[in-house]
């Protein structure tokens, strides 16, 4: 009875004291542990985020203990770098599957981060906002960027240097957030543009004309250089503002990459344009030019440029004057400045005129010598007979050299009293010695008029007496023109027989009826002693 009661009370029938046997205790412990284990894993659900501890690392996988009946596996690809993790680290993971087909617990760290990152994006940002991120990898059509989640950066919006791609963080602008697909599109270009615009506005609000700032030469053209003065602002340094002196090309003053100090000459905030200068850092050499180079002063300068009309001579850096070709010599006529000067020549000159406002100085070379025209009216008197060398012949006359640097002109009308001269070369030849009479002297305008016919008395008084109107004479045709014929009455004396006085029929012309050399009888209509003309007629 006692044993039965004890058995009914759960005791060991073989032990009168009711104490369980060793095997019975072991079974109970296993059952209790199983119950506790089952209770501990019962709360694990697929899709749940749980904490885990890294217990082992392999080249391709990370083994994590989450307190489940078996350890979980995470691909090493889900970690940024194996260097960033170690055994013992605690991490949050997503339980993707309690047991896959291989009986392994599948975990994901990346999906936890993506979910939290997406939640951060949706709650903390909107389209158009700036966000920081790091370039992860290049993909088709662009790049993937880590901004808490992997966001897409199109290649057309990826304005950055290769060196920047390795930096920790870059700033981007969010172009689009697609909540359905849970993706984000970024732009580096828009972020830089916005940043530059802010920097430009900030810089333009702090600058003023005359301020000196530093910049870097970004580009050089024929007309100047473009300078980066910061804040995304590129200013123009025009070639005219590089130096007070002559600059043939901007590369003579600056080179790409140079850091230089410039002066702000002008700027337009609305157009984000700025004009810069270097020469303005020093005093304008033209300020006291009239004091340094008074008119009449004799100085020496350097020829820096030659033009068809003269030579530019540098007096000092920034100050140049022009020696016009007409100021080269009193006596010699130069066809080109190169006949006398070359670039680099040191030449003595005289200051003739200064126009400070126009920044022009007129210089002369011939003024360093005595002007041969000075006192000309004392040396040459009207009526004097003088011999000279025929130096030059033109259609209208011949230039005769009276002395070095002094020429007089014999006009074609002053070669003969009576003969019609078609060209001065018919009477005078270049190089001939010619005797002339001085008709006029104009020292102010540097002109002397000469005559050859004046060596003889005017014969027209005698001609008027000899050839009275109505007299009939014989003559020879010496020239036929479209308006009439010239008839030689005696040596070096001609009269004009106008076509209207030739007695032509209605259908006749002079060449059909007459020829040069024909002798004919003509009547004298009139003799003009003032105009030196004789009118003849056949018809009369």
**N-end to C-end Cα span:** 198 Å
Strand content: 35-45%
Q: Mind telling me which CATH architecture of the largest domain this is?
A: Beta Barrel
The description of the largest β-sheet is: 5 strands, mixed, barrel
Show unreliable segments: 1-14
Instruction: Work out the number of β strands.
Output: 30
Instruction: Using the CA coordinates, give the radius of gyration.
Output: 56 Å
Total DSSP helices = 9
Q: Look at the helices and sheets and give the structural class.
A: alpha+beta
| Topology-level CATH name of the largest domain | OB fold (Dihydrolipoamide Acetyltransferase, E2P)
CATH class value of the largest domain: Mainly Beta
Estimate nothing, just give the exact number of structural domains. 7
Strand arrangement across the biggest beta sheet: 1-2-3-5-4
> What level of helicity do the residues show?
10-25%
Write structural notes for this entry.
This protein has 540 residues and is α+β, with helices and mostly antiparallel strands. The protein folds into seven domains: 2-39; 49-108, Nucleic acid-binding proteins (OB fold (Dihydrolipoamide Acetyltransferase, E2P), Beta Barrel), CATH 2.40.50; 126-194, OB fold (Dihydrolipoamide Acetyltransferase, E2P); 207-281, OB fold (Dihydrolipoamide Acetyltransferase, E2P), CATH 2.40.50; 289-368, Beta Barrel (OB fold (Dihydrolipoamide Acetyltransferase, E2P)); 376-455, OB fold (Dihydrolipoamide Acetyltransferase, E2P), CATH 2.40.50; 460-537, Beta Barrel (OB fold (Dihydrolipoamide Acetyltransferase, E2P)), CATH 2.40.50.140. Helix content is 15%, strand content 39%. The chain has nine helices and 30 strands. The strands form six sheets. It has a five-stranded mixed barrel. A five-stranded antiparallel beta sheet has the order 8-7-6-9-10. A five-stranded mixed barrel has the order 11-12-13-15-14. The longest helix has 20 residues, at 22-41.
